[in-house]
Amino acid sequence: MLQQTQTSRVIAPWTRFVNAFPTPTSCAEAPLSEVLRLWSGLGYHRRAKALHDAATMIRDAFDGAVPGTVEDLRRLPGVGEYTANAVASFAFGRDVAVVDTNVGRVLARAVANRTLSVGDARITANELLPRNDAPSFNQSMLDLGAQYCTSTPRCQSCPVARACRWNVEGGPDPAPRSAGVSRPQARFQGSDRQARGRVLAALRERPRSMQHLVACVDDADPQRGATLIAGLIADGLIERHGQRVRLLGDSQRVQRARG
Known about the structure:
There is one protein chain. With 259 residues, this protein is mainly alpha-helical. The protein has 3 domains: 7-66, Endonuclease III, domain 1; 101-169, Endonuclease Iii, domain 2 (Orthogonal Bundle), CATH 1.10.1670; 192-258, Arc Repressor Mutant, subunit A, CATH 1.10.10. The chain has helices at residues 7-20, 24-28, 32-38, 46-61, 70-73, 81-92, 101-112, 118-128, 134-147, 165-169, 192-205, 210-217, 222-234, 250-258, and strands at 208-209, 238-241, 244-247. The longest helix has 16 residues, at 46-61. The chain is globular and about 65 Å long.
């Protein structure tokens, strides 16, 4: 949920989600449509499907328990290096570096004072890991980047300002072009991402006709609507039966309710 989404927006959906699905197995056994409904407000809905698929793999391949090694975590759908390292470090105490946007800024500015490639950032982060309590160090780096070494840095109050190479040596800000530092997202208003969200919001309420959904996307451009709906079908988020469209797994949800 935290991938590409601010923590403040995640708290409420996360609370709903863990109350509904306290274990990976409970998530895996629910239809995808239920997961998509609880995902409301977060966007990037392919993450919801990846989470549902990951829960299914955890149930089937790991006896319902989240795996504790980076290698096994990377096998899960939707889990990349950052997420795998973060879970391995914070949940299982593994000595692996966690590098996200926040840490990327700290590394580029305070440690190197130069633009870092992806490989350089990984090497530098792992070289900094202490011999004991790597999770606490990783959390400190994340908090330093989130609270002080932000996109507009708070150098005057930063606790490592005296040791920061960029603060001491000066020069152009090396953070924006460095590995792990995300670029600004494209405009949301009027985007395909917004239109996809409208389609899924309509289907959370009930199945809809193709005509209704195409109009949700763009009244003036039916082809755009048809293309976006086809993309959602290809992503495995919705399904079409004739001229009716529904969230994937909605028929299973109805059967469960009747049972």
